[in-house]
Amino acid sequence: MPRLVLLRVALALAATAPALAGPAAAQGKLDAHYTASLAGVPIGRGGWVVDIGSDQYTSVASGMTTGLLRVFASGEGTGVARGHIRNGMLIPADYAATIVTGRKTEELRMSIAGGVVKDLSVDPPTPPHPERIPITEAHRRGVIDPMTASLLRVPGTGEVVSPEACNRTSAIFDGRLRYDLSVAFKRMETVKAEKGYEGPAVVCAVYFTPVAGYIPGRAAIKYLARQRDMEVAMVPIAGTRILVPFRITIPTPLGNAVLQAIQFDTAPQPPKPTPTSLRGR
Q1: Given phi > 0 = left and psi -120 to 50 = alpha, else beta, which region is 19?
Q2: pLDDT averaged over the chain?
Q3: What pLDDT is stored for residue 118 in this prediction?
Q4: Coil, strand or helix: which one is 163?
Q5: Domain-embedded: residue 77
Q6: What is the sign of the dihedral through the CA atoms of 8, 14, 16 and 22?
Q7: Domain enclosing residue 16, as ranges
Q8: Which of 22-31, 70-79, 130-139 holds the top average pLDDT?
Q9: At 1, is the pLDDT very low, low, confident or very high (cuts 50, 70, 90)?
Q10: Across the chain, which distance is largest between two alpha carbons, in Å?
Q11: Structural domains of the chain, count
Q12: Interval 240-262 mean pLDDT
């Protein structure tokens, strides 16, 4: 399975609801470290920092291949998403990703306003192919970038980690591929990082549906579309009603590909003083 397709889908497996939905959330921060393995063999590691502020948010991730896989194909990547928080809603604004494999580098820059892609730069450009399903202007509307989509907002005032967090569908656009990710509640479980979080997680089954920008005959696309055993375990960012991935599992012909948090440090953040509160002092 091509690594770039797998990486793009893995980045967004937690995308279970549009980020424009959900109630206001308090402020919180996450600093997490992950390991990636294939059939139990370590193949990579990465980090993820999320900062949920009073009126804006940032999400920064990076990773690289390690161990035996690096002997055959080295690779590393970074991703950044930024946006605004208005009336309790996450509104994506900018998304950037860089993936380096061997001597090849892929760079993507995208700006979004009101769920509509306004500017897009992809280098190298997507190669033309007569069978590729074209991306139209309609495919660039009502979408969310993969990293913002990984910040799942849970509506209501009840338990954040609950079955209700699943059972949704999101429209994702990563600059090259437009696809839907649907999820359904699978089970509740308790997870524990080597450092940091220990507590409940909601596990969602994940279903991938390609929409545009893909070649229907490609084996990786057909394999992912047929999969019924992909899943993501979600846990909360402290002080907020936002869930993020703790573990992602994607079956492959060689065994399960697993992205697992080994460090998951999260804490609520005190509200920043507003001009009004400062005048009252």
Answers
A1: alpha
A2: 84
A3: 95
A4: helix
A5: yes
A6: negative
A7: 3-270
A8: 130-139
A9: very low
A10: 66
A11: 1
A12: 91
Instruction: Provide the 3-class DSSP secondary structure of residue 225.
Output: helix
- Residue 54 pLDDT > 60: yes
Number of H helices, E strands in the chain: 5, 15
Q: Tell whether 279 is covered by a domain.
A: no
Report cis status (omega within 30 of 0) of the bond before 124. Answer: yes
Residue type for position 88: G
Q: Is 70 left (phi over 0), alpha (psi -120 to 50) or beta?
A: alpha
The distance in angstroms from the start CA to the end CA of the chain is 60
pLDDT at residue 272, rounded to an integer = 63
Cβ burial, residue 106 (10 Å; 0-12/13-18/19+): middle
At 177, list the tokens: 């591929």
3-state SS assignment for residue 233: strand
Side chain identity at 260, as an amino acid letter? Q
Residue 144 CA to residue 3 CA, distance in Å, equals 22
CA distances from 248 to 22, 25, 36, 198 (A): 23, 24, 9, 17
Beta bridge partners of 183: 168, 206
Determine, yes or no, domain membership for 278: no
Residue with tokens 């991703």: 79
The token pair at 119 is 């500017």
The pLDDT of 86-104, averaged and rounded, is 84
Enter the tokens of residue 57. 């948010």
> Is 119 domain-assigned?
yes
Q: How many other C-beta atoms can be found within 10 angstroms of the C-beta atom of residue 78?
A: 16
Region 92-121: mean pLDDT is 91
Token output for 32: 């997490």
CA dist., res. 115 & res. 21, Å (int): 12
